[in-house]
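Quick question, first post here. What does this chain look like in 3D?
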Amino acid sequence: MPLALWALTISAFAVGTTEFVIVGLLPTIAADLGVSTPSAGLLVSLYALGVTIGAPVLTAMADRVPRKTLLLLLLALFTIGNAYAAFAPDYNSLVAARFITGLAHGVFFAIASTIATNLVEPEKERWSPKRKARPLRWCSLA
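> Answer (accepted):
Ran it through. Tokens below.
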């Protein structure tokens, strides 16, 4: 497997983990920041809002940016947002950090999956493009 594909895999794991790991930490975060657990739960919702807003807006804004450059910029935004979250002094700072980190999430997966598909040699693909699209077609009908 190409080294770039390993890098994309590890990056996707990091981005995906950031989305879900906070759920198990909500009571601890709430106690540490002096907010209620439902208020801490907004950190999950606001991350999702960042993903929802970021994916179409950043995709439209980055139309002419080369994919590799865009991927690196998204990972930089993701890293900055997580570093800011790690040292957030209060609840509002953590909310902002989670939202910023969420902005990169949707676009990252769109670009990373496109790059990953291009890295796999056609003769090593197990499924034809038509066969790959079939599950997506059925999911959209459901």
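The first helix runs from residue 3 to 20.
The chain has six helices and no strands.
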